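Budget justification note: compute hours in this period were largely spent on complex prediction jobs such as the one shown. Inputs:
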Amino acid sequence: MAVLTDRPAPPVARRADRGPRALVNRFLGYAILIFFGLVFLYPFVIQIANSVKTEPDAAAHPLSPVPDPVTLAGFERIFAGTNFPLWLGNSLLVTVLVTLGRVFFDSLAGYALARLRFRGRAGIFAAVIAVMAVPGVVLLIPKFLVLKQLGLYDSYAGLVVPLLADAAGVFIMKQFFESVPVSIEEAARIDGAGVFRTFWSVVLPTAKPALITLTILSFQGSWNEFPHSLVAVQDPGLFTLPRGLADLVSGSLGKGTQYPLKLGAALLATIPVAVLFMIFQRYFVRDANEGADKG
Amino acid sequence: MATEALRAPATTPVRPPRRRGGGIRSNEHVAGWLFVAPVLVILGLFLLLPILMALWVSLTDWNGQGSPFTGQVPFVGGDNYTRLFAEDGLARRDFMTSIRNNLYYVALVVPAQTVLALGLALVVNNRMLKGKGFFRTAFYFPSVTSSVAISVVFLFMFANSGAVNALLGFFGIEGPQWFADSRGVLHLLLGAVGVDTPPAALTAGGPLGLTWWDWLAGPSVAMMSIICLVVWTTSGTFMLMFLAALQNVPVVLDEASTLDGATRWQRFRHVTLPLIKPTMFLVLTLGLIGSWQVFDQVYVMSQGDPAKTTLTPAYLSYRTAFRDFDYGSGAAISFVLFLIIILLTVFQRRVMADRDEPRRPRWWRRRVPEGS
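Corresponding output:
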């Protein structure tokens, strides 16, 4: 491998583009892409197709992307026979409140940790980092205990308040504010603007990309949140979409498999995040890459 | 929103006296605490405090009636913990079964998702292919969807008359009844080579309440479907991490080694892989940490069945507390799981912090063998 040649370097990239070998390589590359494209997307095709099939059709031809006949019976039953509209409403309410709370509180704290000098700052930041390591699944019983104790169990407050701030969001905002030049806010400070005013009308507007990222992550996170609602409420009137969906699947509906209905409900629950993903894809992607950089 | 930046400097200084004698500093001090207060209160109240409460409950026999913090609740000390490890009984058998299940789950999920993610990243990173953006999106999309919703889809795909069995049917294979099949994959493999009845030496006894034969069952057929789902949903995220790392590999290096006559595999093995080692470490450890937390999928797809072969510690702790109303045991299981995850996280963070200080790959390489 280390053999040195004294040939003048040919333009490698172009040479590799031609010839039968490159053609085979490229063909192989596309074959792999398309194969895995199918593996990753076909389940969604199956989901959509089977949600508009009749039940016998779905059972007989689960793989077929063509419903025969097309029926909206599953969707009709979702709206008429289940509490889907209620779950949808609850999910919307919880998601909007949690997203607003996280964006506001996380950026406040992120700004303070990045810019304001106060005693205990280093300690608080260390605590935030430590908290990020606490896995959600071990908090199921603890959260239940504290919600009971505070009288928040089985209430909207119980669904929303514990999620209003998250350590990862604080971390993202702190990192961002540290990358903003100090000069802008110093000018504002010298002009006599208070700390909050400087933050609110000078610094925050420059943080738009970070705010969008945080908004999207919070929306996606709270829309999909399942374990928290599992231990925060038991009243079916307070179920969010994932909770209702899980309830639907574990068979309280009885009679038959009802796959078209279940797939349809799951599809409807997926659509908002899917749309968000399509529009703001680069923000999703950026987040994953930031994870790679910082760990 | 953006226009306010222009407006702000216009606010005239009104109260100069406040800025006298370190005024700004104390101002900042108060403001700093006020700014972090909401986050501190929420995290303290719904994260730290509950962990302490659960620690207390794990030392009691609380059954969910009334408050666990009154004198009436029997204090049992470390009993809930010893029952998980030292006393022969149902509690230990279930716990060890869940540990076994999760170990096999980790052993399959982590390598599978890492290899798949890296493979996808390599293909998507290929300079000669078009339409990569679309495929990158397609591979990543499952990662952002709801775990519950996607579990419903996989429940259908792995149903007895579902898509997976229909696909296997094309190849003349009769698929199993996925979610009713508690047979371990290793047992099945042994059966295929003729070991139908377990040797007596393995069924006679074994460590921690399970026989050797039970420990060596492998993941059940039902667990395999959950493994498929998880690998499918997580690979996209890890692919993006690998992609970011691959894009930092200088093209010149690759071309130089091509000139030197290195084969594709040699280039990958000796040029690319060493350069993306930090990301590899990150993906492996994030995978390790994440795969001890599997819960949603188990809840929706199998609830620990069949024959407890999809029981994981996370789900067992939930079930013990909220179905069997044995909150003390449930909390104890949570804490053992907590310990496992925290140890993995601390290990990861220490190695990564070591790496971040001197930014030299060679130094990093020397560090790895000690820990991993």
